[in-house]
């Protein structure tokens, strides 16, 4: 007796989800690797102007960096293997870059082998962890506000 695969089961297959995750993270990391980190510690995303990314509107209107200013620069430094420069550009961005690279390898492993190695990562979606990430993002923003020169300097 031949068992038919349920389309929803196939669609929601952990291996398929892992493969899609690995591809998405690979695309993100590949773009980061193609960029030259801006020496100002922010503004690297402006190299992606073909995608409509221009100067940060928050930075332009207030003269101060937004919470994500420096993330692209941080990813670009991390892609070059310069984790210290990545951290200095945007500490939370550095954490995300390392997590993205790690996530790529875990997702690729799950997609290829069907391993359950990613299951413990679900705990990171619990409110306690999400609040911790929010606090880290705010702390990184405060750092960025302190280290970014005031307008006109």
Give a verbal description of the structure.
By secondary structure, this protein is an all-alpha fold. It is globular. Helix 2 (14-34) crosses helix 4 and helix 5 packs across helix 6. It has one domain (7-147). The chain has helices spanning 7-11, 14-34, 57-62, 71-79, 83-89, 91-113, 127-147. Helix content is 60%, strand content 0%.
Summarize the structure.
The chain is an all-alpha fold and 153 residues long. The protein is built from seven helices and no strands. It has helices at residues 7-11, 14-34, 57-62, 71-79, 83-89, 91-113, 127-147.
How is this fold's topology laid out?
Elements: H1 7-11, H2 14-34, H3 57-62, H4 71-79, H5 83-89, H6 91-113, H7 127-147
Mean residue pLDDT: 85
Q: What oligomeric state is this?
A: single chain
Low-confidence stretches: none
The biggest beta sheet reads: none
Q: How far apart, in Å, are the first and last alpha carbons?
A: 76 Å
Broad structural category: mainly alpha
Helix content: 55-70%
Helix run count:
7
Number of domains: 1
**DSSP strand content:** under 5%
Q: What is the chain-wise order of helices and strands? A: HHHHHHH
The value of Rg in angstroms is: 19 Å
| Total strand segments | 0
Tell me, what's the shape?
A: globular
